[in-house]
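Notebook entry, structure prediction.
Reason for the run: the old model in the group folder had no record of what sequence produced it. Starting over properly, with the input documented here first.
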Amino acid sequence: MPRCNNFARRFFKTERLKRKTENDKKDDNDDDNDVRSPLTFNLSPLTVPLKMIHEIKLKVRDYECDLQGIVNNANYQHYLEHARHEFLLERGISFAQMHEDGIDAVVARINMEFKTPLRSRDEYVCKLDVKKEGVRIVFYQEIYRASDNKLCVKAKVDSVLVQNGRLISSCPELEDKLFDSSDAF
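New structure, fully documented this time:
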């Protein structure tokens, strides 16, 4: 069962208080009997529990950190991209070969939630899962600090395929390699 984040707790507490104000007849103990639960809401596209199908272990390099001594947030995108590329290579998919064939995978949107910072020389594990959602190929990724398995970043990366500059809805040859049947739940 997913945990409720602080935003969700504040949101639902505010909603309950609004309902109480609108109806002064409610009992003060009504909060405990509220049938709506924050766990039933999907406030973030990143709250879906996932079965991670690939992981890679890496180490933070000194030059990736900012003046505060933590990894600059832009570098997390590099970590996520590196994990995606390694996953694709593991599946026998080459970006160079795809490009020569006139097909390019491009990131259409990325959503990142920063949880715990990484510091210089920290080892971390980047994990991912991939799903086909309409025309999008969606990568769900998480980065954990290796020393204590603390979640550092959660990300959802929407990518699309373009062929000779035009959006295409699918590429069966690519999808056969990308979505291995053994990855199914």
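Summary: The helical segments are 6-22, 73-90, 95-100, 172-178.
The old model has been moved to the deprecated folder.
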